[in-house]
Write a structure and sequence with these properties.
The chain has 339 residues and is of the alpha/beta class. The protein has two domains: 134 residues, NAD(P)-binding Rossmann-like Domain (Rossmann fold), CATH 3.40.50; 191 residues, NAD(P)-binding Rossmann-like Domain (Rossmann fold), CATH 3.40.50. The chain is built from twelve helices and twelve strands. The protein starts with 8 loop residues before the first strand and ends in a 13-residue tail after the last helix. The relative contact order is 0.13. The model has no long low-confidence stretch (mean pLDDT 96). The structure holds nicotinamide-adenine-dinucleotide.
Length: 339
Amino acid sequence: MSTTNTNINISFFSTQPYDKVFFTKVNEQFGFKLQFFETHLGPHIVNTVENNSVVCVFVNDKVNEEVVTKLAAKGVKLIALRCAGFNNVDLAACDKLGIRVCRVPAYSPHAVAEHALAMLLTLNRKTHKAYNRVREQNFSLDGLLGFDVFGKTVGVIGTGNIGSAFCKIMIGMGCKVLAFDVIANKELETLGVVFLPIMEVFAQADIISLHCPLNEITKHLINESTIAMMKKGVMLINTSRGALIDTPAVIKALKNKQIGYLGIDVYEQEDKLFFKDLSGDIIQDDTIQRLMSFPNVLVTAHQAFFTEEALSQIAAITLTSISQICANEAITNKAAILL
Ligand code: NAD
């Protein structure tokens, strides 16, 4: 354990009980002082951050210019994202204020890829409905008809860590895999994945799975005009970021059956809903309520990453990066460093 770490406080935001368990365990090797906040990071809470702390955030913490400026005034010099995506952080503001930023570029890509598969198979074979049905002693099959995934054409948008793991799973399932990425993946090409322009992938795929990051180019990638290019009855899976999808356009396409199945683990307005137990509340978001009313829509609450292996790796990679940055040591995981 590094003795210098014992002087470093890390303030965690948006923490859940499992974050405390995994980070506390991994921290036995590091010796940081850990402070866990359940609330999102926002301007309201910055005052409670101890001076000179490292701040550790998750997917729905809004690390905008206002927050970054307040953190800088508290002497914060490092923001560590305990996730891969970083669309919620104003990197330009961090850069201007001399705040370094790191993330967890890859932690069990299999966790997310396997969840995408779970959504695909659940939507297709309706195991969620079958489970409830047999518990009611209803053993009929009517309404549970699925299709063979074998032989179908799967379109994968984004073939980085997760998209690549997903392509390999789908090849193993006997599918024809088409992909689009701004950089073609040679290893996948040798395995038989065909890289095509995105519009071709949209036009040919029976099943489309999104694995690209959210940025200015990919925002609302799935919109009225791209949906119109897809096969009627297409299955769309999004485990990446909610705003890749223009949700009203998708609802319209579900209503006219252009989209036959929708599986989403992420949702553009998820920050007000996900990771909370709202079972006793009146949900004010009519869009998610409409989505959940379709029998061919499956929503999970940003749980694709949620495996033991992934949580252990997230904690280990985050604390290793923080330790190396704070000690000015060589960084072993270069992709972790954003600034
Ligand atoms: P990655 O950086 O390894 O891969 C992303 C890929 O997308 C890269 O190959 C990149 O070239 C490609 N890309 C960039 N712009 C593109 C564009 N315009 N069109 C098509 N492809 C483009 O990231 P990853 O680890 O595979 O993660 C992918 C995304 O999954 C993350 O950005 C994150 O938003 C999301 N994610 C979700 C969960 C979850 O629990 N639901 C967990 C981890 C990551």
